[in-house]
């Protein structure tokens, strides 16, 4: 009787968290959700896609793509969709204005692959509220972009309330 030899089993590497990325690490995979996506117009007129993504635990990182891959990333990435991302180039985030607290940014390059997945474990949004007292006490970082829409809502409600009283 002829028996087939056991085939070697090839197992995919397990996904990691965004916090586990290191600058010299080029091969990895992470399950992510795109929470914000925008197009940046460069001084030379070219454009590229940037995004904020988070993993299953809500850790965020700023993503930058290359301008010659603009069309591909516009077609591939959508806000509030979950993906499995493979490979890329983690770098120190040396931008003057940081859009999230991660000390790294992630460059999606020619080795980056991405597949759409339905992963309910990754929420579409993780709120990270900062107490108003931190702002009034100066307990915040000046190189972060903070949303001020609540201040606008508050002042609009105040104006509306004042109009009701008069």
From TrEMBL:
Pfam families recorded: DUF223
Origin, by domain of life?
A: Eukaryota
Tell me the classification of the organism that encodes this protein.
Eukaryota, Viridiplantae, Streptophyta, Embryophyta, Tracheophyta
Name this protein carries in UniProt = Replication protein A 70 kDa DNA-binding subunit B/D first OB fold domain-containing protein
Where does the chain cross the membrane? none
What range(s) does the Replication protein A 70 kDa DNA-binding subunit B/D first OB fold domain occupy?
A: 18-115
| Organism for this UniProt entry | Pisum sativum
Q: Note the InterPro entries from the entry.
A: NA-bd_OB-fold, RFA1B/D_OB_1st
